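seq:
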Amino acid sequence: MDQSSITPNASDQQLVANGDNESATSLLQDKQGRRRDNLSEVTFFEYMTVGILCYVNLINYMDRFTLAGVLDNVKTAFSIEDDKAGFIQTVFVVAYMVFAPIFGYLGDRYSRRCIMSFGVALWSLMTLVGSFMPEYKSFLLFRGLVGIGEASYSTIAPTIISDLFVGNVRSKMLAFFYFAIPVGSGLGYIVGSVATAVAGNWRWGLRVTPILGAVAVMLMLWVMKDPERGAAEESHMKTTTYKEDLKYLVKNPSFMLSTLAFTCVAFVTGALAWWGPQFIFLGLSRQPGVDITIGSVSYKFGLVGMAAGAMGVPLGSLIAQRLRPRLPDADPLVCALALIASAPLVYTALLAASPSVPQPLVYLMVFLGMLTLNLTWSIVADIVLYVVVPPKRSTAEAFQILISHMLGDAGSPYLVGVISENLKRKFSPFEAPSKLVEFRSLQYALFVTCFVEILGGLFFFLTAIYIVKDKLKVERAIAVAAKII
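struct:
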């Protein structure tokens, strides 16, 4: 078979090699003819479903990064240093990743609409209640409960899109879905800083998303469409035991390698998103004659993040779609090159935040580093959905969340905080650290993200070795389950 003719994500294309019967070939080609290849054939209710999922994803990430926009205020309120400030996000992510496999198992077997509605209601309520917690430890508890609720949504939502669409339509819808991540993150910084400025209290920033979450629950219960699993691919595959699901995933090289690569993306994203505003504030506040606040820096950082995501996520998907007809392993190669390109840009951005560099140039370098990092988001999601068979996709999403967060952003904010605090003690062993020492310590700690990006690029290159073969296995398994072969 000529593998160059393979179009990723099209599980209903011609798969039958020499020796397969002609009736199988005819049936597969008939299915291909019925496939919807353009957005004009998408129904109104399908658009509504994707729109609702995107809306929830947006407020999901708004909630995650509202605190990052007011981190300096949080540190002051709880009288904590960088290590404990980073630990707030670590607690959230640990709870998120631990419960993701549970919701992944449930998502492959029970009503996804009900599971997601429960999760959104839970994290909205816990965010609201947590905003009233007066002590650091009690606040940590409720951030962990927020993570549990968000795990139920993130593991399941992409699988609904995979069951509605195939081919490049699926890729475009996934790009739209993951477009909400950087945009929502940027809005989180903005909401946190603006609410703090208006109300005079950072806690009011956490009281915005619960209102939006209540609207999301109603939309999911009464408007959203929950398709049959594997409906878009006309799959008739049955679920297997959880042990068999995990064994299948571990033996899937494309899935495992892309998961390790995405772990590197999560590590870098988590560290930069959490510490970015604080770091830029420390750097720019040292410029002579400059009067800035952490709120104004967070606001600008949020706008830059939104712009980088609005361009990066769909651009990465578009580049991959254009290359696929000529390059069957284009998806992991685009991701690899994006991470390799992002590393020196992030390094330059970390150097740029200094007294001698104009503010616009600092934010430009931040934008370019985030833009290249965002190229990978929707492509990685696409890879997971076409190298894993339909009844195991929620479990696959959950497993990827577990690994990528356990080894990625669960520890990176805390790790950077710990490194920063140790460097402060080294540079100023006998006195309180100066603003310059605080800046340099955090800068050196953040340099680790550049090395992790290079490692992620290498994992994506390795994924490219197996991607075509593993996608073909999925397509053949679907055809066999449909009694075509």
